[in-house]
Design goal:
The chain is mainly β. It has helices at residues 2-16, 55-60, 66-73, and strands at 50-52, 77-80, 87-90, 99-103, 106-107, 128-133, 147-152, 162-170, 174-184, 188-199, 204-207, 215-218, 224-236, 241-255, 269-288, 291-311, 317-341, 344-359. The protein contains three helices and 18 strands.
């Protein structure tokens, strides 16, 4: 009887004993620290037809001209007379004078011809190239019936320091070179870009304009050389204000070949065009939350000299044209953009342009 009681007591004790077991807990939730995503409201989603050329395409032919880039990768019509010769662009059947070329918000079309020679604009200078079709161009500049081509460079603050050199060598003694130096700190950013493009352009072709049978010839007097540089400085005054200065200077020289029907007719033809331009822009930006203010002043200077002289069989001059043109332009602009609410934004702008043209072709102007 006593033995049964002991077994009973031991059984009860073993049941009442608590055994604690510890293990690694597995949670299905991971705690992350707080982070912010900030974006500037660029526009209100207006139905504008604006295309930005992808950087992959720009880097593919980075040492060529903007005219060649547009001909390869955009639907606009590019009229070109060959490498190193005049190249113009038109949108949707309009003329080249209806196409505005905008650099950092300012029109760089010639006030004399109303158009731009795209063969003298290197791709490598710019960080972004946009096309605005039709009425879309009115958001940037007035008077562009066909459209506008916007050439922009980015701010150099808070970017990596880098040095890059590109070199291209092609047929007919063609050399293309571009070098760039970027230096950036929290307060100051600098970008220096140098370009040089040259070619003898002495290709072989069949001239069927020489009677009676035509003749295989080498192109002569068709060489060109473009060289220039840009310098950009960006300075951060404080968290909301920045000032910038950018200058673009370039020298363009080209020889112009005789037309096919005038070759081997006796005498010599000397035809060339030389040009220089300097374009400088100073800007100030204030971004204080819902309001953005900006002011810019631009001064453009351009010289162009066109020369043509024809001679007879003994070398005596028959006709001479020596055209010298000078253009100076001063532009001021002020813009304000403020957000009243999430669905309402107000914009205002004021622009002033003063252009002076001097030419020995137009008297009493």
């Amino acid at each position: 009887m006593v033995r049964l009681n002991k077994k009973y007591i031991l059984a009860i004790i073993s049941i009442l004993i608590n055994i604690s077991v510890y293990c690694q807990p597995v949670y299905d939730t991971i705690q992350l620290s707080e982070f912010e995503i900030v974006s500037n409201n660029k526009d209100l989603g207006l139905p504008l037809n604006i295309t930005s050329i992808d950087s992959i395409y720009r880097n593919d032919i980075n040492l060529q001209s903007v005219g060649e880039l547009l001909a390869l990768y955009t639907p606009v019509f590019v009229k070109s007379y060959g490498r190193g010769s005049v190249s113009t662009v038109s949108f949707r059947g309009t003329g080249s004078r209806h196409t505005k070329v905008v650099w950092e918000g300012f029109d760089i079309n010639s006030p004399m011809l109303g158009q731009t020679d795209f063969s003298t604009i290197p791709i490598s200078i710019f960080d972004d190239i946009e096309l605005s079709y039709g009425g879309s161009s009115l958001s940037e500049i007035g008077g562009a019936l066909g459209g506008s081509i916007n050439l922009n460079t980015s701010c150099n603050l808070d970017t990596e320091n880098q040095v890059s050199i590109s070199q291209s060598i092609g047929s007919f003694n063609t050399f293309m070179t571009a070098a760039e130096l970027r230096i950036s700190t929290n307060k100051l950013g600098s970008k220096t870009h140098i370009i040089q493009q040259s070619s003898l352009n002495d290709f072989t072709y069949y001239n069927n304009a020489i009677l009676p049978y035509g003749k295989t010839m080498k192109q002569g007097n068709a060489d060109f050389k473009n060289r220039g540089f840009t310098q950009q400085l960006d300075y951060r005054i404080n968290q909301n204000q920045t000032i910038s200065l950018i200058t673009w200077n370039q020298w363009n020289n080209r020889d112009i070949p005789a037309i096919m029907t005038n070759i081997e007719k006796g005498g010599q033809q000397n035809e060339w065009q030389k040009g220089f331009f300097s374009r400088s822009i100073a800007s100030w930006d204030l971004n204080s939350g819902a309001t953005h203010l900006s002011g810019k002043v631009a001064y453009f200077y351009e010289d162009m000299n066109y020369f043509l002289q024809t001679t007879d069989t003994i070398g005596s001059p028959i006709s001479t044209i020596d055209s010298k043109n000078n253009v100076q332009s001063l532009s001021l602009s002020a813009d304000i953009k403020t957000s009243i609410s999430s669905s309402l934004q107000l914009k205002g702008s004021l622009k002033y342009i003063n252009q002076i043209v001097n030419s020995n072709n137009y008297y009493d102007l």
